[in-house]
Each structure stands twice: as structure tokens, then as C-alpha cells.
## 1
Amino acid sequence: MKIKSWKFLFPAALMALGLIWIVMGVFKYGIYELAGPMPGFFPVLVGLAMFLAAFFDLFDCLKRDKGEMHLMQFLPVLSLMAIVLCAYAIGTFPAMFIFLVLWIRGYEKYDWKTTLITAVAVTLSTWFVFGEWVDVDFEQGWIMRTLAL
């Protein structure tokens, strides 16, 4: 399936998302105080970088020739949206593990041994570093909460 002249939509959406991060970081969380950076400092930096990169990409894609886009070019974005939705249902780490298995085995075409070793290593290292060491509260998922696991 080919989509014509929609190339500006992705940079425009990223610009809007960058602006949302900047506004939320400045007005909801705050940027900086005398004691140091506040919780909105990093979202403002990321939002600003995203906005600027998307801004320049928007002008670049508007001046380029009108090529065709394939639906497969949206696969990473659609996959990311699916993993976020699955995280609310089954939890962050099971969703991450399933996503990694499907991506590495299905899209990258690696063998099962490499797929499972990589998926387990990435999921466990992410859980250890962010879930245990940094103590980030990850989404447990309504299915896991219902089953009380």
C-alpha cells in the first residue's frame, strides 16, 4: 500500500509532541530551582530536541521531490504504539518481552536462540536497572493487577 504526499505528517506530529513535552515540562513540572533541576528539565530538553529535529525535517521533506511512502515505513511507530497499549493491559515488562520476541524473530529474522537470549537479557537488564536500582514505578497492567501477580 502506497501513500502519496503524507511525508509532512510525521514531522508535524513530532513537532506537536515536542511542544507538548516542552509545555508540560515548563508549566506542570518546572525546569530549575536553586537546589538543581526539577522533574521537567529533561522533558523540556528532549521536547526541544524533538521539535527542532522535526522542524528541520519538515522543511527538508517539503522541498524534496514528492516520492512515495510505503506502509512498512510506519512499522516502528505502529509497533511502539502497540507496545504502549499492551503495557497498560499486561504490564511493561511482559509487553517489552513480547515486542522484542516478535520484532527480533519476525522482522529481523534471527533464530530462536538469539531471539530468546536477547529478549530475556534486555528485559531483565531493563527491569534491574530501572525497576530495582533506580526504582522507577512501571505499569503493572490491569490483567496482572486483576490476577494479583
## 2
Amino acid sequence: MTTQVRRFLVQFAGLGASARARIVERYLDLSSQRAFALAEQALAETIVQAGRIAEQDALAGPLLQLVGRERHASHDQTGDATDVGSTSDDDVAHLDKVAEPALAAVLALLVADVLLPSVATTLYAPVCDEIAWPLSR
């Protein structure tokens, strides 16, 4: 799955603002549905059962870089850039709205070999028009 995850991250990095906005719009429509909530729960359980928690954690850094925290730096009152390398609750508030659907999609790829295809399809749906599912179904 490493190749597919890496390819996803590269393609995601190349998305423009309008493509990201379309992903967020689809995510907002789909994430309120019960099927999406159940898929997220199944994803979490599958990651644990497959023993891929370390891989999940390893994806956080690259994905956080791609979804911006105000482009890696914020400015304090003096105008000096401050380090935002750690992830606190305040940092999460600064994430691009595309973070959640991107995370769901990349984690679905991470465990696609053991995740039910219907669950993977549900979780990947917000991004599928912008980044095609890289695995045969």
C-alpha cells in the first residue's frame, strides 16, 4: 500500500483550491450520512485489527504539511513567524477543511487490502472525482 499512499499524497499536493473546495463540499454532503459514520468506525477498527496504528501515525506528518496550518507558520503579534511543528488543539483549528476527507481517503488506502470494498468506496468518495482510486476493485 505504500506506493498507493505515496501516489495519493503527491496527487493531493498538486490539487488547486477549486479541487479542494469540491472535495470539502462532497465530504460535507456525505459525512452527515449514517453510512459514512459507520465506515469511519469500521476504518478505525480495521486499522487496529490490522496492526497498522504506527503506519497511521506516520501519515499524520506528511498529511498535515499538505493541509496547511497556515502554510507551516503563523505570526505572533510582533510579526515574527512562530513554530507550529507541534500539534495542539489550536493547531487543529487552523487545518484546511480538506484535512478530514483527505485523511479518510488516505487511511482507506492504507488498509485497502483488509478493508471491505464498500467501506473503502464510501470513505474515498469525497476525493474520487479529483484523485482516482488507485487500486483495482
## 3
Amino acid sequence: MQQPYQMYQPAYQPPHRSTGDMMKTMFLSNLMIGLGATLGLVLMWLGSIVVGLSTDSDVDKMGLVIKSLGTLALTGVLLVGGLARQDFEKWVRVVMIFSAALIVIFIGFWAGFIDLSGLGMA
């Protein structure tokens, strides 16, 4: 006995997602925010250790650069994560943006007023 002919069934096509949505899920995932914040904190810590233990002004400058990169990374992750992640609760996003502003004010702004005359930098 012959089986009835099966008609062609088209393959399942998932709903189309825009490139912006795909980039958001890749670069603004919880894992990426956590890794970026951790990297920023580690760079800030490492730069502070280099500055604290250095005896040469060039090494001290390099430590300040490392610390500044860590501050930039942490501030950027908090600010972009707070602005772009719509799925977080409102107060979590507010705290992320507020903490990024506090880091800029208290670490980024006041770091420029450190007396560096003894290091040959001013």
C-alpha cells in the first residue's frame, strides 16, 4: 500500500530581530556588565598599587594611567548599563547612573587635585 504524498512544509523561521536588539543582547548581557565592572575595579586596584609602590615618576604615571582606564571602564559600564538596559527595575538603573556620576565626581574629578609636585609631574 502506498503512503499519501507529504506536502512540502517550509522550515520554521524565527521572528526577525533588528541588529540593535542583537547587539543589546550580546554586549549588554548580565555577564558582560559583570565582567566589565570587575575589569574596571581590578584595573583601579592595580593602578593604585602601582602608584603606591612606585619610586620612579614614569612608573607612577603608568599607574595613574592604569587607574584612569579602570575608572573609565567602570563608569562606562555603569552608565551604559543604566541607560540601555530597559529590563532592569527603575531604581536599579537610577543607582547605576548615580554611582557612575559619583565615581566621576569623587574619583575622576578630585584625582586631578592631588599634589604631584614631589613626583616631578607638575
